Amino acid sequence: MTTIANAVQMINTAKKITFLTGAGVSTPSGIPDYRSLKGVYQGIDQPEYLLSHDCLVREPKKFYRFVKQLYHPQARPNIIHQKIAALAEKKPVWVVSQNIDGLHDKAKTPRVVNFHGNLYDVYCCKCHQKVLWENYLIRDTHENCGGHLRPNIVLYGEGFKEDVINQAIHAVKAADLIVIIGTSFQVAPFNQLLNYRDSAAKVMAINQTALAIQEPFTMIQCAAEDLFNEINI
């Protein structure tokens, strides 16, 4: 069984790393995940609908009430974000994140692909003007044109932008070590990114529950913050 010490050595000796991160990376910053017993979806009927394009169009007020609770502007990058950003100063590092909280950007990681977008990037659906997220938390209509505001995130029922997909594929192809952190790795197309890795690249997963991945990989079953605490940079 691979230990935390072995995992740290793999990260330290890798020349080019791409981190594929999920909600478990942000929970130590006080941001709840989606599907756990304490997650955002717990106790909600049809939560995917509330985070869908259909809900935005048909019931914008219901969409707005749900999305507002996803904002945690007081959250700060934790040891995982910080150590990844520090590694990026020493060697080529990419992050492809499912998270929409922007914490990798707050940590000043230079090469981040926000695969599902960013809650703090808000625009008007009518005139397409950018709007401060602080204003969005006060009202969901644009004071200039009356159009509905929305965060620039990928909703259920929406497609992914080609440039985002291409950036993510490039990040995976570039790595000799791919580290999956804090995600069940079951949501497509994020979980299909491994298909684009170099055949010689190693894959490691750091998660509190074991993952089922088709490709050969090293599983580290622990809290990711415990492992990143052991990385000295």
From TrEMBL:
Q: What are the recorded GO MF terms, alphabetically?
A: histone deacetylase activity, NAD-dependent; metal ion binding; NAD+ binding
KW Metal-binding (keyword) present: yes
Q: What is its EC number?
A: 2.3.1.286
Q: Where is the Deacetylase sirtuin-type domain?
A: 1-233
EC main group: transferase
Task: List, from the UniProt record, the residues annotated as the active site of this protein.
Answer: H116
Gene3D superfamilies, per the entry: SIR2/SIRT2 'Small Domain (3.30.1600.10), TPP-binding domain (3.40.50.1220)
PROSITE patterns from the xrefs?
Answer: SIRTUIN
Q: Which Pfam families match?
A: SIR2
Supply the alphabetized keyword list. Metal-binding, NAD, Transferase, Zinc
Residues annotated for Zn(2+) binding in this entry = C124, C127, H142, C145
Q: Does the keyword NAD apply?
A: yes
| Cited PANTHER family | NAD-DEPENDENT PROTEIN DEACYLASE (PTHR11085:SF4), NAD-DEPENDENT PROTEIN DEACYLASE SIRTUIN-5, MITOCHONDRIAL-RELATED (PTHR11085)
Q: Supply the NCBIfam families for this chain.
A: PRK00481.1-1 (NF001752)
Its recorded name reads: protein acetyllysine N-acetyltransferase
